Amino acid sequence: MRLTLAPLGSYDIGAMLAAIAAFASYRLGALDASGAFVAFLIGTVTFGALQATGVTILLGFFVSSVALSRLGKKTKRERLTDIGKTGARDAAQVVANGGVATLCALAVALGWGLRYEVAFAGAFAAAIADTWGTEIGTLFGGAPRSILTFRPVGVGISGGVTLIGTLAELAGALFLAAIGYAFGVHAFLAILAGGISGALLDSILGASLQALRWCPQCARPCERNPHSCGATTTLLRGIAWLDNDGVNFAATLAGAAIAFALAR
User: Fold this and answer.
1) Hey, which end of the chain has fewer CB within 10 Å, N or C?
2) pLDDT tens-digit map of 13-35
3) Contact assessment for residue 256 and residue 107, using Cβ atoms and an 8 Å cutoff
C-alpha cells in the first residue's frame, strides 16, 4: 500500500476528526486550550496530506503517550518537582513533538517526494522514543545518571538515563516503525534509526546545552524558574533560552533527517 495525495475534501474530513480528537484530549486534561488548538491544526494537515497512514502514525504516538502519562500520575507528579512543565501539554510542547512531522506531511502534499513520508514517521519515532523513555523510566528506572558524565542526576532532569528508560525508548521506536510499515511506509529500519538517533540526541542535548538551573533554597539543580518552592533560580549550565521544548524539536528534526537520509 502506498500513500496518495488526498483531495481537498479530505482536509474537511481531517478538520472534523481533528477537532473531535483535540476536544476530547482537552476534556481529558491531556492538552490545555493552546495545545488542543495546535493539535487540531496538526491533525487536519496530517489527514489531508497523508490520509489514514499519517493519522495512524500520529495516533500511535499520541494515544500511547497520553496513556503512559496517566500511568502512575500521582507518583510522577511527586517526583518531577524539578522539571520545567508538568500536567496538560501546551502549544509549545505539541509543536516540539509534532511540528517537524507536520512540515514533512506538507512536503508530501506539495509533491516533493515520498521520502518525506519516511521523514514524517522518523520524526514521530524520535518523539515517541523520548516520551516512552521518560514516562516509563521515571516510574521504573530507578536513579538516573547523566548520559555524558555517568554521574547521578535528579529524576526527570534532562540528560539523565536509566536502563529501563533506554529499553523503553527502543520499544517506542520499534512500535512506531512497525505501525509505519504495516500502513505502507516500507522503511522500517530507516524509521527505527531515526527514532533511536533522535532520542539519543535529545539526551545528549539535555545533558549539555539545555538550560540547567540552581535553586539556592533547596540547594539542588532544576529546570524551573522559579523553582517549585518559589525561589528564584540561577543558570547553572547550558544556554538560558534552550528548554526541553527546544531540545524535543531538535530531536524530532534529527529523527526526520536520519530517516529521510536512509530512505529508499
Assistant:
1) C
2) 778 888 998 999 999 888 999 99
3) no
